[in-house]
Amino acid sequence: MAGKTKSNIKLAIAPIGWTNDDLPELGGEIPFEQCVSEMALAGFQGSEVGNKYPRDPKVLNKALGLRGLAICNAWFSSFLTTKPYKEVEADFIKHRDFLYAVGARVIGASEQGHSIQGLDKSVLDEKPVFTGAQWEKLCDGLNKLGKRASEKGMALTFHHHMGTGVQTAPEIDRLMENTDPALLGLLYDTGHLAFSGEDHLAVLDKWMPRIRHVHLKDIRGAVHKKAVKGKWPFLKAVKEGVFTVPGDGDIDFAPVFKALAKAKYAGWWVVEAEQDPARANPLEYAIKARAYIKEKAGI
Q1: Are 276 and 26 in contact (CB under 8 A)?
Q2: How many whole angstroms separate alpha carbon 156 and alpha carbon 105?
Q3: 192, 160 in Cβ contact below 8 A?
Q4: Each residue of 167-179: pLDDT tens digit?
Q5: Which letter does DSSP use for residue 163 in this model?
Q6: Mean of pLDDT values over 221-245
Q7: Model pTM?
Q8: Which one, 65, 72, 98, 239, has least CB within 10 Å?
Q9: Cα–Cα distance for residue pair 238/11, rounded to 1 Å
Q10: Which domains are present in the chain?
Q11: Residue-wise over 25-59: b if at least 16 C-beta within 10 A, else e?
Q12: Dihedral of the CA atoms 6, 54, 106, 7 (nearest 10)?
């Protein structure tokens, strides 16, 4: 069963290492039951939601309960820059209510309006750049969605992501500076910051008071260099192995763990490393990540 951690930090792992939502061919043959069983076997307490997870809360809760797991969050695609707010809000409320029913109290949103993360375009050179009007729609919309989340006692967090309009440190700054801290937190993702060429520790330090969910994603420097030089699309980089679990790539997580501990961060740390399971056995890499966190963070 899942291992115990310090009381203020809970460890989860994302199913994207087993089956990939954006690339269904990666791990398409791996069933949901294998995924969650191996998460528990590797010593994790929680999971985010993948595309193979049952959508009936009773069914999902039973499967997780048998394995000592909890749902901590699930990705929400917002389209605040391209769709009417009311349409986005209706989708958000359905998502919120599902997550609440399965025990999660965090919602991770990523703005997918104009996103190129699934397109055959250079993820660094052709990413969208929002206009002033789009920034206003995004920030205003996120504040409103944050109010909807708070109705259920839930925290809305924003997931900066490669190939989107909020990818770089200055873009994260603009988003945080123009949204209400009481309504929107930051989902801090080491791998996306490193891929984008940002100083992930500087972002961590600057926005620590707003960080309410953490994704621990490592990066393989040699693959990243090829991705930059070759102007790769995001999904090509994923398939080629640009991401991996903490302890297997080039990011030193010790300073990350130290900073979070010093700030008395309370919440989930989620190992999230989208890889091809045929090349990186999910259970093996989950165990590797769990051992690394124990070694470096004492958890």
Answers
A1: yes
A2: 9
A3: yes
A4: 999 999 999 999 9
A5: T
A6: 96
A7: 0.95
A8: 65
A9: 23
A10: 9-297 (3.20.20.150)
A11: ebbeebebebbbbbbbebbbbbbbbbebbeeebee
A12: -10
